[in-house]
Amino acid sequence: MLSNQELILAIESSCDDTAAAVLKGRKVLSNCIANQTIHKAYGGVVPELASRAHQSKIIPVVQQALAHANIDKNDLTAIAYTQGPGLLGSLLVGGAFAKSFALSLNLPLIPINHMQGHLLVHFIEEEGIEAPKFPFLGVTVSGGHTQLVLVKNHFNMEVLGTTLDDAIGEAFDKCGKRMGLEYPSGPQIDKLAQKGDPTKFRFPIPNMKGFDVSYSGVKTAFTNFIHKQTQNDGNYISKNLNDLCASLQYTLVQIILKKIEQVTQTQQLNQIVIGGGVAANSELRKQLLTSEKSHQWKVFLPPLKYTTDNAAMIGIAAYYKILNKQFGRLTDPSLSRLNY
Asked: Which of 87, 114, 183, 307 is deepest in the core (most CB within 10 A)?
């Protein structure tokens, strides 16, 4: 099998983004994403609305991906899709389309773990992307997950630590909502924090045992602080918005950074590979690059276009599945929860 000549159509539909990509081997020929803006009105993703939106967007997005790659569907050699984890209704839309498409073209089907894709995006063959060497510490930071993973090879991954409550992205969004920011709040907090003082306000950094993290404590402390201050001054948030964002962001980043330091020392790992939507956060990227020098780490940060949910990461994971001759079946279920 000439894997470098594989033409893979990859589909990602785990949450509220409908995405399709075409890869030739490890090279991305197209990577198209259709966002769902309807959720802004609700302050978070509404699962039923997300699955309905996927149904209307998936065919146009796939057509767009094939057109941008200048590929006819009959040229494809494999179909990959996100099996899980994620919202079950959303996963079912992508999975059903992928299975039907693969069946109609008589092509192999490759189910992919969404979280593995976030880390394997670093193996895309593209200028500006350097592939890490095994083993390394993978850190997935997103709206739904915060995990520290020992990555022994492309598909041998062991979760060393995880959030015991909220994910880091969830903490950004919930605290942002308390300040009156639109969903998703993370990018807005990041932008406003650039003009603020990260030391103006102090919020607690939990001392968790082992390699696990917790974000509910700082979220509660932040919410209580805002409530107390606004009781005395109704304009408190608007007067201190930049400093509040900077201080909150600094605290949320420090929580995961301290665990990364702990894991690398204990496990004797010096390669840190970041994946997930919060990997786009400028404070996290800055602190990691600063720590790279002081801790003698090698930090791998994904290009911003591959931080949020995208189909290219599903495609690169599928490439390595093909190399290992690991194919799926039409009977494989979509799974809202899926371990590494």
From this structure: 114
Q: Using CA atoms, how far apart are residues 61 and 65, in angstroms rounded to an integer?
A: 6
- The rounded distance, in Å, linking the Cα atoms of 309 and 279 is 11
How far CA 31 is from CA of 63, 102, 184, 234, 305, in Å, comes to 12, 19, 22, 45, 9
Residue 147 belongs to what H/E stretch? strand 146-151
How many CB atoms lie under 10 A from the CB of residue 31? 23
Contact in structure between 213 and 255 (CB atoms under 8 Å): yes
314: enclosing H helix or E strand: helix 312-323
Closest CA to 280 of 247, 302, 251, 265: 302
Domains and CATH numbers, the chain: 3-122+309-323 (3.30.420.40), 131-301 (3.30.420.40)
Q: What gap in Å lies between CA 16 and CA 249, rounded to an integer?
A: 24
Beta pairing partners, 20: 11, 32
| Cβ–Cβ < 8 Å for 155, 119 | no
What is the rounded radius of gyration, in angstroms, for the C-alpha atoms of the chain?
A: 20
End-to-end CA distance of the chain: 27
Whole-angstrom Cα distance, residue 11 to residue 8?
Answer: 10
| 287 beta partners | none
* Token pair for 68: 């941008």
Instruction: Read off the pTM.
Output: 0.95
The token pair that represents 19 in the structure block? 């995405």
> In Å, what is the CA distance from 156 to each residue of 25, 213, 324?
21, 22, 12
Residues whose CB is less than 8 angstroms from the CB of residue 321 and which lie 6 or more positions away in sequence, other chains included: 80, 110, 112, 155, 327
SS3 state of residue 139: strand
The pair of three-digit structure tokens given for residue 33, joined into one six-digit string: 């994403």
Distances (CA, A) of 137 to 144, 150, 170, 340: 19, 5, 22, 14
Structure confidence at residue 50 (pLDDT): 85
